[in-house]
Structures are given as structure tokens and as C-alpha cells.
Design brief:
alpha+beta; Jelly Rolls; 234 residues; 22% helix; 12 strands; four-stranded antiparallel beta sheet; eight-stranded mixed beta sheet
């Protein structure tokens, strides 16, 4: 796979790979409830906030010094829409070494798991997109095809809200708007299929944990039995 194969637009390429219906009139629930984590991570949030830096589409891979390999295509989409290609999308930092967040990550039973702390502040917006896991080390910051491209079930991403929902905080997945979430609630979605985006037009921070990895039978069971009423003490 190469940039010629992708064309000039990340959005158009990933949309073609998706099996979602793209019909705005359909009433569908396009994310899955997983569980609700219970614990105290106020100090850990502050620790992460002291280390985060604002990210754009180009520099969002915090493990690299160079631009993300798909950034030209992503910036093309923004420019063609009349938007600023250097728009801030969120701030984030690696959180795999923070014990309570590590325990959250371990619950999913995945392999080679990445744990990222995200914070979205007033005015930051992660535009409508479909995941491609561009930052995974297996790609080597290139258009290299990985096994999950052929079989999306081999990888999964989870989002865990670290604070209660506040007015102005938006998380849309497909035709569903996830809002009024509670601290610790966790969701997942079909990453290859479901377009999604987030923004913060409110006045308070929106801290979140993002956990991504290679799935196991344990992961599949976690998803199949998922429900916000399932509480996990960490």
C-alpha cells in the first residue's frame, strides 16, 4: 500500500473501506457500551495535564518527531473544506506507566496495548473521520498494510471518560451522539466502519483515556458482555 493507493483524501479512502450505511436519516446506535470503571484518578489527571501538548493532525503521534505519514491527505481534506489545516484537535500524552490507567488498560485483555491520555479544551476539535490507526508502531510511520487492515477484528479501541460530561462537550459516532456520560464510562465502536468526531465548545476540560491494542478472546468477551451497569473497580 502507498500514498498513490490512498489518493489525495484520507476521508474518501477510509470511507470506501467502511461498511457503514452513511444514511443520516437512519436511527442507529453506532457505539457499544462496555463498562463503568470506578476509582480515584484526580491526581493522575493533573499529572497528565502537566505533560500534555496541543496536537494537530500532523503532529498527533507523540512518539514521533516527524509528521504523521497520512497528514498531507488529512490536511488536504481540511483545506478543501475551507478549514485551517493546523487546527488543534486535542492534547495528549502516553499514560501506560500510570498505575490506575494501566489497570484500566489491562481489563480489556489486549496485547501490545497503547494507553493515551487525551484532553480536549475549549475550541479544540477532532474532525469527522474513520480510524486507520496511523500511529501504530507496526506501520513504522508509512503506508505499510498491517494484519488489522485485512481483518479489523484483530484490533480494537476503547474510550474511557475520566470526568462527568459537561455542557458543550461533543462526541458523535455515526448517527449517535454520546453525551451525558458519567466518569469512568467506557465505549467502543467498529473502528474500520464508524465515522466519528469530537469537539469542546464548552468551558471545561474533557479528559479521556484511549486504549488500543490487539484483541484476544478475552477482549471479545468484554465487548459481547458490555454494559454501563457493569462496574469495574480499579
Amino acid at each position: 500500500m502507498n500514498d498513490e493507493y490512498w489518493g489525495e483524501s484520507r476521508w474518501e479512502f477510509t470511507k470506501k473501506q467502511s461498511k457503514w450505511h452513511f444514511d443520516p436519516a437512519k436511527e442507529t446506535v453506532d457505539y457499544k457500551q462496555v463498562c463503568t470503571f470506578q476509582g480515584d484518578w484526580v491526581n493522575e489527571i493533573q499529572e497528565c495535564l502537566s505533560k500534555t501538548k496541543p496536537n494537530t493532525w500532523a503532529n498527533r503521534n507523540i512518539d514521533l518527531k516527524e509528521k504523521v505519514y497520512t497528514s498531507t491527505l488529512e490536511e488536504n481534506d481540511l483545506i478543501n473544506a475551507g478549514a485551517n489545516p493546523e487546527i488543534e484537535i486535542f492534547s495528549r500524552v502516553n499514560a501506560k506507566d500510570i498505575p490506575v490507567f494501566k489497570r484500566i488498560g489491562e481489563y480489556f485483555g489486549m496485547k501490545e496495548t497503547s494507553i493515551k491520555f487525551h484532553n480536549q479544551t475549549t475550541g479544540q476539535m477532532l474532525n469527522w473521520h474513520i480510524d486507520n490507526f496511523a500511529g501504530r508502531k507496526e506501520r513504522g510511520n508509512t503506508f505499510t498494510e498491517i494484519e488489522a487492515d485485512k481483518n479489523p477484528n484483530l484490533m480494537r479501541r476503547f474510550a474511557i471518560m475520566l470526568d462527568d460530561w459537561k455542557h458543550g462537550q461533543v462526541f458523535q459516532l455515526g448517527n449517535s451522539n454520546w453525551h451525558q456520560w458519567k466518569k469512568g464510562q467506557c465505549i467502543t465502536w467498529e473502528w474500520r466502519d464508524i465515522p466519528h468526531g469530537t469537539c469542546n465548545m464548552g468551558w471545561e476540560d474533557r479528559p479521556m483515556l484511549q486504549v488500543t491494542g490487539w484483541t484476544t478472546d478475552e477482549t471479545k468477551q468484554v465487548v459481547e458482555l458490555g454494559d454501563f451497569n457493569k462496574t469495574i473497580n480499579v
